[in-house]
Write a structure and sequence with these properties.
heterodimer; A: Rossmann fold; B: alpha+beta; nine-stranded antiparallel sheet; 37% strand
């Protein structure tokens, strides 16, 4: 593991409170939040300009859902890993998240430790490639 | 398995909803939601939109309807920060309740995006005309370092058609 390397993240959630909470949890030199988006369209605009290693994507959002965004990311930004987040965590929702292309799913509210564990698991995969 | 929501009795449904509401949730270390009361039945006519700020979430799936989260706060004191905190806290609370409810009953219900609805909105006038047969209320308090906001959750819903699993 290269502990000195910084990884780029994009946070997509229509809730300002949720985006701020996630940004606070990741306030560390290892995690570089390159953008925050409150909708799928906003996220695509950012992705066209900057490519993160990981996108943290909420499922229930106005307009296109997180599922739809995840599919677009998988089709057009193949190097971007996705962590899907939602307050709903029924089996069906988690299965849809994974089949939409998410590498992990976290139920809100998660702890800083849970979020970082999920991110670091993906970083390990990236570093092994 | 053919799961038919109509085979589940109303009292069993109410009991499952009661047990599905969490007693306490830590909201990202920045606030805590604590449940104050058991679940009460009420008539839709007993709901008064003028008693607080109302945030509405639609319910879709094997129960259809709405959860109205009524925050005991003046609209004038409802700052952007408070609105962001309370809306996401209610989203988390209802999401956890519906997740627990699915574990209890196998019934899948999802929520829509929250909307802050004014007291004179036509939604409230039409509430009594909807064929709701599940009308339940429970109370929570949302604690932050600076404040406590009491909130009542009104669940108005009806059963919908069974699904094939």
């Amino acid at each position: 593991m290269d502990a000195t390397k910084s990884y780029k993240l994009l946070v997509v959630d229509d809730s300002d409170f949720s985006r701020n909470s996630i940004s606070k949890m990741l306030d560390d030199e290892r995690y570089n939040i390159i953008g925050e988006a409150s909708s799928a369209n906003e996220a695509i605009s950012i992705l066209n300009d900057r490519t993160p290693h990981i996108a943290i994507v909420d499922i229930v959002m106005p307009g296109s859902s997180g599922f739809e965004l995840a599919k677009k990311i998988n089709d057009n930004f193949k190097d971007v890993y996705i962590i899907m987040i939602s307050s709903l965590a029924q089996e069906n929702v988690v299965m849809n998240a994974i089949s939409s292309g998410a590498s992990d799913f976290l139920q809100k509210p998660f702890t800083q430790e849970t979020l970082i564990n999920s991110i670091e698991k993906i970083i390990s995969t990236i570093e092994e490639m | 398995m053919n799961l038919d929501v109509s085979n589940i009795g109303k009292s069993q449904l109410n009991q499952s909803i009661h047990y599905s509401y969490p007693t306490e949730i830590d909201i990202y270390g920045q606030a805590v939601l604590k449940r104050n009361t058991n679940l009460d039945s009420l008539k839709t006519s007993q709901f008064n939109p003028a008693l607080g700020v109302n945030i509405i979430f639609s319910l879709n799936g094997e129960l259809s309807g709405n959860v109205i989260c009524q925050m005991d706060i003046d609209q004038d004191n409802f700052s952007f920060e408070k609105q962001a905190l309370t809306t996401e806290s209610m989203n988390i609370l209802i999401g956890q309740m519906l997740t627990n409810f699915e574990k209890e009953t196998g019934l899948l219900i999802t929520i829509g995006n929250p909307s802050l609805v004014k007291q004179d909105h036509s939604f409230f006038a039409s509430l009594e005309n909807h064929p709701h047969n599940i009308n339940l209320k429970t109370d929570y308090s949302l604690f932050t370092l600076e404040s406590k906001i009491d909130c009542s959750l009104f669940l108005f819903a009806q059963k919908v058609t069974p699904r094939e699993i």
